[in-house]
Specification:
about 220 residues; alpha+beta; three-stranded mixed beta sheet; 4 helices; about 35% strand; elongated
Length: about 220
Amino acid sequence: MKTKNVLKLILLVAVLCIAGSWYYFEVYSKQMSPIENGDNSGIIQEETLVSGETISSGIREMGELNTAEYYFSRTENVENTKQLDLTSLGIDFKADIPLTTNSFTYSYDGEIKAGIDFSQVTVEVDNDAKTITVKLPETKITSSEIDPDSYKLYSVTNNILNPISPDDFALSLSDLIHAEEERAIEKGLLEKAQKNAETLIRNFVKSYAEGYKITITQ
């Protein structure tokens, strides 16, 4: 009796070993072969969709960001002469009044910054086509500042008939800031700010959507 039980046990073990060997060579090894060869086509993977709102939210958190700077240093001479103006009387006549000219010379350093308001950026995502379109707002000058510690007054020619007033300095500073902004724009400040902003945005979006085609417009 014991001999029969032992034989049955041996037979059962043999059957299990044969079944296990068959499963390994016929099923398991075939499933693993594509993975070992780098082929995952036979495996169903859940695709992660890119969220345009997630990207937009991250960009908006940047707020208004300066992406380019323009530094300047200038020496200016300002002259002011009183005029005889009869246009208010209906007479088309204007002329400088002799001996009423005043002048002053000064120098200054400053900085102009340009950038975009990232809170106004819009993002459109097409997960089927794997494309992302980012629309940027207009690049603009965000600040124009003169370093107060750099301002130096070199010479003043005052005239008792036309004394220099604080308004002369205020008007001059306003004029020079406007002039420096024009120079900065002519030298490509806005284009530089735009290019830097695009690079920043492109790198940011790539961190969320590897493998997507990114298009940036304005």
